[in-house]
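Changelog entry

Holo records now carry the ligand SMILES as an explicit input line rather than a separate metadata file. Below, a converted record for S-adenosylmethionine, shown in the new format.
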Amino acid sequence: MTQSSAPAEELRTAMADQLVREGAIRSKQVEAAFRTVPRHEFAPEAPLVQAYAAHEAVPTKKNEHGITTSSVSAPDVQAMMLEQAEAQAGMRVGEIGSGGYNAALMAEIVGPAGSVVTVDIDPDVAGRARELLDATGYHGVRVVLADAEHGLPDTGTVDRWIVTVGAWDIPPAWTDQLAEDGRLVVPLRMRGLTRSVAFDRDGDRLVSRSSEVCGFVTMQGEGEHNARLLLIRGKEIGLRFDDGWPADPDALNGVFDTDRVEKWTGVTVAPAEPLKGMQMWLASALDGFCLMAVDPELDTGLVAPQNKRANITLLDGDSLAYLAIRRTADGAEFGVHGYGPNAEAVADTLVEELRKWDRDHRQDEPVIYAYPASTPEADLPAGRVITKRHRRIVISWPHEGQASKGTIDEKEK
Ligand SMILES: C[S@@+](CC[C@H](N)C(=O)[O-])C[C@H]1O[C@@H](n2cnc3c(N)ncnc32)[C@H](O)[C@@H]1O
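Structure line, unchanged by the conversion:
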């Protein structure tokens, strides 16, 4: 379909204006890139309005189960990650996960003195990216077909990595190919929660500068790592574990046949207030942390979680408690629903940690560290330690004393 460029230009201007207004675009370089690159030419299958919708991704490939494996990511997420990266003119930038559009934005930002290389594991995606980049005049962007787990063949170091696919771990190649003062921006999954973390390199460790909520298609190839799902009540309710698979999953059979224990916390949130800090706090503080999902087609209404797709849940043996919410005059209040023989105690633990977040950490951002997996416990900063295949991730909260909050081994499954 031929699309006339006048409406595309208007829509592009409107999209950029909206991203600036909403604070996703903060710098002149990123703004100029969004005003320049013709996004619709990288998403020819989408109607113009969809191509320029500020919060919409355009899916470009699905697997045999109908699950999206590639897309042109949503503009607001791309802007957020480009701002986190703070790439400057003349830098060498590497992108993991291609599509063409984001690489073109990066090429605008680093300019002719810089360089952009993008790598994808899927030959269809890499081929399409090459074609679209050529068609739009971005001949200088290098497109490589490879599993990014092993970094970029025949390439030295880069000043910035932007990973545009959901990663569970940080392979050594990504730091080996990162300049001494370089930055890696990666959507990293920790205990089931994904955050786009901007990591600065500090010797052999990475230290976060910022972390933002995001969602991405998951990594394929050698670095693929799927969470495990425990289904209960037929398949109505699922519990998702990145780690901490229950010692006796059968102990949860019938847990929802017990009476519900309901507790309210007095902790309130304003409408549209972001909950990213609260979720990260609970993921750091609770040993039996997992995420609950309710199948919309099988939902009998028995459970009423705050979020039916990924709800914070605390598991302890044969009992569990999950996060609930109720409206108040000026917002909403968090509560907890507990089930099982030990419902009271599990619910109390979750209530206590919610109150602790409200009292001590509501204004805080955690610092996230990534150390080589061989780093001994004694050399790690205080915080929740998540041991993966290649790294030990530490989520560390300010004002939280010296004691470690505990260690979780995500790689042992
Ligand atoms: C969200 S898309 C990338 C979007 C793109 N950066 C854009 O311009 O909007 C994620 C891509 O990551 C790719 N991918 C998944 N696993 C990969 C791996 N191990 N190595 C390289 N690419 C991978 C997928 O094939 C998919 O095309």
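Spot-checked after migration. The mean pLDDT is 94. The chain is about 25% helix and 30% strand.
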